[in-house]
Amino acid sequence: MFNHSQRPRDGEYTKTIYTMVKDQRYAEVVKILSAELHNHPKSRAALSILGYCTYQMQHYEDSALYYSRLTEVCPENDHYRMYLAQAQYKACQYQEAMNTAVQIDENNSEFEDKVKKLQAAIKYGEGEIQNAKNLVDQSSSGDADKHVNYGCILYKEGKFDDALKNFLDAHNIQGFKPDLCYNIALCYYKKTDYASSLRYLSEIIERGIRDHPELSVGMATEGLEIRSVGNTLALQETALVEGFNLKAAIEYRLKNTEGAVEALTDMPPRSEEELDPVTLHNQALVNFETDPTGGFEKLQFLIQQADFPVETFANLLIMYVKYEYLDMAADLLAENNDILMQKDNNYLTPWMLDFFEAVLLAETSPEEAYQKLDDMNARITDDLRKITKAVQDYRQNREDEKVQKTIKEYDEKLEMYLPVLMQQAKIFWERKNYAQVEKIFRKSVEFLNDNETWKVNVAHVLFMQEGKYGDAKGFYESLIKNVQARREPLLSCSAIIPANLCVCYIMTSLNEHAEEIMQKVEREEEQAAYEEPDKKTYHFCIINLVIGTLYCAKGNYEFGISRMMKALEPFSKKLGTDTWHYTKRCFLSLLENLAKHMLVLKDDVFLECIKFLDAAEANGRYIKAYHEGPLLSEEEKNDPTKEGRNTITYEARYLKWLFYELRDGLNYNICRL
Length: 673
Prior knowledge:
Blueprint: H1 13-22, H2 26-39, H3 44-56, H4 60-73, H5 78-90, H6 94-101, H7 109-125, H8 129-138, H9 144-156, H10 160-174, H11 178-190, H12 194-211, H13 233-238, H14 240-253, H15 257-266, H16 277-286, H17 292-303, H18 311-322, H19 326-335, H20 337-340, H21 350-364, H22 366-396, H23 400-429, H24 434-443, H25 445-448, H26 452-463, H27 469-485, H28 496-507, H29 511-531, H30 539-553, H31 557-567, H32 571-574, H33 577-595, H34 603-619, H35 634-637, H36 642-645, H37 648-663
Helix pairs in contact: 2-3, 3-4, 4-5, 5-6, 5-7, 6-7, 7-8, 7-9, 8-9, 9-10, 10-11, 11-12, 11-14, 12-14, 14-15, 14-16, 15-16, 16-17, 17-18, 18-19, 21-22, 21-23, 22-23, 23-24, 24-26, 26-27, 27-28, 28-29, 28-30, 30-31, 30-33, 31-33, 31-34, 33-37, 34-37
């Protein structure tokens, strides 16, 4: 019901309404005039103001309805018809917008150029690029809008250099405009000129902070609790949302995930239900490592919407494959098969579709999947060799621009090549056929010799083969040197790299080198603890755990287990899901050998194990014993005991019970944790 206390006082109605419009209190105006419209359904003033306010609130469908009624009340007024066409265009009602636009008097010079531009925008929105271009050609020459429109069309055609030139020409004509600067930044991003892109984004952000302090830019990153600024027209005009999203994309491409997360939190604050699809997609992507469950929820929500970003489809498939939800990946492909089979689908390239099909095929027919992947690799290696030859020719002819363009093409092909290669290797890795995995990697050395992902995987597969620790050592050393060359701490790389390198040193009688690596890591952890006392670091602990695992694997359980137990001290800093994983594996191996009477445990070692498990039980109540999959089945969700079982406390108590059972000489089967 309408609250009559909000009704303007008699004699001040018009003044009050227009003051509220001036103060951008659009929602209040809509509430008042909507009630008044029931009494005066053909009020020109009420319909006009309602159309304007709902347009400013970005409720374009409502705005179109009001302007449609207004054109019925005032059929001769082309201004209202123009507003109606614009509202319909914004509401993606392209056919209706075109029908309205053609009704505007062609002889009215005031609207002639505006109508052409609007019709071009409508055709662009419908994907009819050539028709849009023809309409732009008919618009007045020399103005900035024409350059912008040409730039948009050229961008759509993938001609980023030409699009950039048009956007820069428009920028020179009309100076700073947030949306235009964003277009320029986007073109530089597509050209992988990230420095230039960030320069224009910085201008957008600085202007937004200076001109609109009410948008609270950066406040969320500083930890301040602030209310949502909403999806206002002012926010839209600043292009801050688009700018921060593009900045996050650049940081993500540069593998600076922290920078990407910060860019998104710097964005003007909005509640989750107010977020646009692009922001929601980017939030899911940059936070996937820390919140995979939330990431899946966001991507799955987006894929069900009519206007989700085209990247959502491929990224959701990638995450399904990464987390091994292959049934869900297969369902997603099957549900959208009709769209994907279309020649001009924007969701998956033919290459990506072949790749995902091969990955899914590996579950049921690994040999056939391997052959399909091998055919894909054969095609792309031919392309890589041709591109390499072209680069050499261009360099000889000193055609620098073509060299840069061709190198970019080479990098793009390499990004396609690496996942296919890794999937081939995975087929044999899962069969523990490490020699065959090594052969696959050796074949790719021509193209991936300097690729760190490739080096890590080669090092791991050599490490897994008895007697190849010397070869693995060389690859791990190369990775460590790369980290040091970038002047980054060893803590910035995966803990398994220095850990496995130390094992390689020990196995090749270079214990002093292992000690040196361990000392460096220990010093860095001490420095990190000084700078961030609450942050846990596990590198030094994991190195000791891996070395302890090595001794256990060689049968020296007394030394290996002892080293592992000491590595987890103090428990408040070192006990975690990953460190517990290494520890419990060796405890289970020890218990198995004890049960088979393959070794005898000294009493003091037994007591040390019990004491250690008591401490793990006391400190592990709120620490997960293993990483759960981000998507739980209905059965897992409804299991009341699941949460209590997935704790280090539960598993430590269980291991302790097994030790007591063994001591008492009872027969039992060791259950796998």
